[in-house]
């Protein structure tokens, strides 16, 4: 099961959990095979991410973030929480920006390690 952004959804994917709107109203039940119309409905109702069955490969930054050290995740979260201290993280847009910045920061570390390569 993978939780992915609505922007990454493709027709044919299957919901692992029911998709709900901001008020926790069920829009589509778990097990539903997604169509393009379903994805449009998610956008219209402000759904930013859903859980789909199977593992969905993401961009390298997302993969690096998923494999990041828990201590590194904590450090990045604390730094971003300080930068976002005056922002309402309950707002879906602010929450998504926070998440994307965290993934980017965590992915940057993995990318730098790959570019440096092993020590000679």
Largest sheet: 2 strands, antiparallel
From the N-terminal CA to the C-terminal CA, the straight-line distance is 39 Å
Helix content: 40-55%
The shape, in one word, is globular
Give a count of the beta strands, DSSP E runs of length 2 or more.
4
Any low-confidence stretches, pLDDT <50, length ≥5?
Answer: none
Strand content: 5-15%
In the sheet with the most strands, the strands line up as 1-4
Number of helices: 4
Q: What letter string, H or E per element, gives the SSE order?
A: EEEHEHHH
Give the class from helix and strand content and strand pairing. mainly alpha
What's the number of domains?
A: 2
Radius of gyration: 17 Å
Mean pLDDT: 81
Protein name: DUF3391 domain-containing protein
């Amino acid at each position: 099961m993978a939780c992915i952004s609505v922007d990454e959804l493709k027709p044919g994917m299957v919901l692992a959990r029911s998709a709900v709107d901001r008020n926790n109203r069920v829009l589509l039940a778990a097990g539903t095979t997604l169509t393009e119309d379903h994805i449009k409905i998610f956008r219209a109702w402000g759904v930013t991410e859903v859980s789909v069955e199977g593992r969905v490969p993401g961009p390298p930054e997302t993969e690096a973030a998923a494999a990041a050290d828990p201590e590194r995740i904590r450090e990045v979260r604390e730094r971003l929480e300080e930068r976002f201290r005056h922002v309402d993280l309950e707002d879906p847009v602010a929450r998504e920006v926070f998440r994307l910045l965290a993934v980017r920061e965590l992915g940057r570390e993995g990318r730098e390690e790959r570019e440096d390569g092993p020590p000679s």
